[in-house]
Design a protein that fits this description.
Length: about 375
């Protein structure tokens, strides 16, 4: 099966070819758009990997030529944009012009399996896509995230079994993760799951790591960062034990089911107080669904009663929920999730949302966007 790679960087072409060969694909390599179009005409191609910044004919122009091909099969080939471009407007333009997906070039060298996941997904190899991501956690996640994922899974299972939860052990673990992050350890966010029951665990991991990164970006004090990370770790613990379809897809619930779902916040606060969590952690748990315009739940607070802790909690929880692949909901790409959050006028702090967007761009936390 041939994959056509069009990029003006010899290094990118070489690395891409090696990764594709390791996964039993043949590569057709072109160093500019014109060469790529010629190879497309002369060969059978299953998918096209296309750069945006290229001389003579850039990625958008090349994409437009592909989509106008007289051969309908070739005109409709899946196209994956592989670029270091972070501008949401340019990415949107490429997608509107017919690109099927986007991935940042950094993943080609840092996490080649993420690149292959995109290939598998666009070719419809859903089973293999899922196998690569989660049945081989030790190969696809950085050590800091893999170990934290297992730690959270254990503490959820321990809590549900009625065993004592050591807050001190959890705080020590969070401090270790924070120190590793400050030393430059690579941190990524999980965005897909195979086992639906794993959603709560993975969402907790993501929320905690995103909280850590965002609060450092905002230059919060160390003690506040750790308290908020602890709050993120426990923010959905009130959902533990609830029938999983209820908390996996709250937007599709009947009124009675949604009422049950809303009570997870109160349960979470109750558990946090029993465990004697810090007040800043409890605030994170209590207000992660409260919105600036008063339309959130369960307390119906508004901007006058919501501190920066609460506002950050809302952004983190909403963002991960929107960009996470679930059975009931197809995940949104990052820029689309942010665009949608901005469109819900009055619900979020625009200042914090813009800073969060800058963090995502700088860290390439979810570079598939």
């Amino acid at each position: 099966m041939n994959i056509l790679c069009i990029d003006d960087s010899p290094l990118v072409l070489k690395v891409g070819e090696k990764i594709l060969q390791e996964n039993n694909f043949q590569s057709l390599l072109a160093k500019n758009g014109e060469e790529g179009l010629t190879l497309l005409e002369e060969n059978e191609v299953a998918l096209i990997v296309l750069d945006y910044h290229m001389p003579k004919m850039d990625g958008l122009q090349t994409l437009q030529h592909i989509r106008r091909n007289k051969n309908k099969e070739k005109a409709n080939l899946p196209v994956l944009i592989l670029s270091d471009e972070n501008n949401p407007e340019i990415i949107t333009t490429l997608l509107q012009a017919g690109a099927n997906d986007y991935i940042h070039k950094a993943w080609l060298t840092h996490k080649p399996m993420v690149f292959m996941e995109k290939i598998f997904e666009l070719l419809g190899f859903e089973a293999k896509f899922k196998l690569c991501r989660f049945n081989k956690l030790e190969q696809t996640l950085s050590p800091i995230v893999k170990n934290f994922h297992l730690f959270v899974k254990d503490y959820f299972e321990s809590g549900l079994s009625g065993n004592e939860i050591s807050v001190e052990d959890i705080q020590a673990k969070l401090n270790d993760i924070d120190e590793d992050y400050l030393k430059g350890e690579f941190v990524e966010i999980i965005y897909d799951i195979v086992v639906p029951e794993d959603y709560l665990t993975v969402h907790t991991v993501n929320a905690t790591l995103l909280t850590m990164m965002f609060t450092h970006y905002l230059n919060f004090p160390k003690s506040k960062i750790l308290d908020m990370m602890l709050g993120a770790l426990f923010h959905d613990f009130g959902n533990a034990g609830i029938e999983s379809p209820i908390f996996r897809n709250p937007s599709g619930l009947e009124e009675k089911e949604f009422s049950t779902y809303m009570r997870h916040v109160e349960r979470g606060v109750h558990i946090a107080k029993i465990l004697d969590l810090p007040q800043q952690s409890i605030e994170f748990i209590a207000n992660h669904h409260e919105k600036m315009d008063g339309s959130g739940f369960p307390w119906r607070k508004n901007s006058a009663n919501l501190s920066d802790i609460s506002q950050v909690a809302l952004i983190i929880d909403s963002f991960d929920s929107l960009t996470f692949q679930r059975e009931e909901q197809k995940r949104l790409m990052v820029f689309e999730a942010l665009r949608r959050m901005k469109s819900w006028e009055g619900q979020y702090s625009i200042d914090l949302l813009e800073k969060f967007e800058k963090l995502l761009a700088e860290k390439n936390i979810k570079p598939d966007a």
